[in-house]
Design brief:
mainly alpha; about 110 residues; single chain
């Protein structure tokens, strides 16, 4: 069942597909601005800190794209570790997260 279909009967505390897309769009836009700012600083490409920041931002952008795919396939908001719902509060803070906190801790 897709997230859109599941949202016709609203479940308290869970984001709708539209809300999830809005949060992901915001997160993507923020990361793109950060990436642009890094590129505009004029720092040398081999600067270790700048390179690490760029890689981290690019990694989050990839996670955001994967979250959009999960919305489409109906698995958004479900932990990939335990298959339980990711708490709405966590999705609000990290809309692209794939894990609930206990599963994330187990992976670390």
């Amino acid at each position: 069942m897709s997230l859109d279909a599941a949202r016709t009967e609203s479940r308290p505390g869970r984001p709708t597909a539209q809300e999830a897309r809005r949060r992901l769009d915001h997160a993507r836009g923020t990361r793109l601005v950060q990436l642009r700012a890094l590129r505009e600083t004029g720092q040398m490409a081999d600067d270790h800190l700048m390179s690490a920041q760029r890689e981290a931002i690019e990694r989050v952008l990839k996670e955001i794209d994967e979250a959009f795919a999960r919305i489409e396939d109906g698995t958004y908001g479900t932990c990939v570790g335990c298959a339980r719902p990711v708490p709405a509060e966590r999705l609000e803070i990290l809309p692209y997260t794939r894990h609930c906190v206990p599963c994330l801790r187990r992976e670390a």
